């Protein structure tokens, strides 16, 4: 019975892989590691700088990485975030975050823009970006 249990558990793990993502900045950014609360402040427009530069927040338009980041790190859904950002933008308290399609676009923007911060799947991390936080 023990063997069957572990075989079933392994099959389940293969059927439902865990999504792992990273919050990234350009490889040459002086920004250091962040904790979950600091990441939340940046991505909710409450922190104005990243690595000493004005923050350029980059969200993904859709996908599993976006869903995992929003629910796991920010604790808000897409609709809640849209309303939250609309209020900040309307009152002049923040500039709208950029929304790009996919890991490659986010990585390219972050790698080429001082102060830019975004999130990508761990599999997309390479030498052009530096990981500040894993989720």
TrEMBL record:
Q: Any idea which UniProt keywords this protein has?
A: Signal
Secretion signal: which residues?
Answer: 1-20
According to UniProt, the name of this protein is Phosphate ABC transporter substrate-binding protein
**From which organism does this entry originate?**
Pseudoxanthomonas broegbernensis
| Lineage of producing organism | Bacteria, Pseudomonadati, Pseudomonadota, Gammaproteobacteria, Lysobacterales
């Amino acid at each position: 019975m023990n063997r069957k249990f572990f075989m079933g558990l392994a099959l389940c793990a293969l059927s439902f892989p865990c999504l792992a993502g990273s919050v990234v900045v350009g490889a040459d950014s002086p920004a250091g590691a962040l904790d979950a609360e600091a990441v939340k402040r940046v991505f909710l427009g409450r922190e104005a700088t990243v690595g000493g530069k004005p923050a350029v927040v980059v969200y993904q338009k859709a996908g599993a990485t976006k869903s995992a980041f929003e629910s796991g790190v920010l604790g808000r859904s897409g609709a809640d975030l849209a309303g939250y950002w609309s209020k900040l933008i309307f009152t002049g308290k923040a500039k709208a975050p950029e929304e790009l399609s996919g890991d490659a676009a986010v990585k390219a923007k972050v790698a080429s823009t001082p102060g830019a911060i975004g999130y990508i799947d761990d599999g997309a991390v390479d030498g052009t970006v530096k990981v500040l936080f894993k989720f």
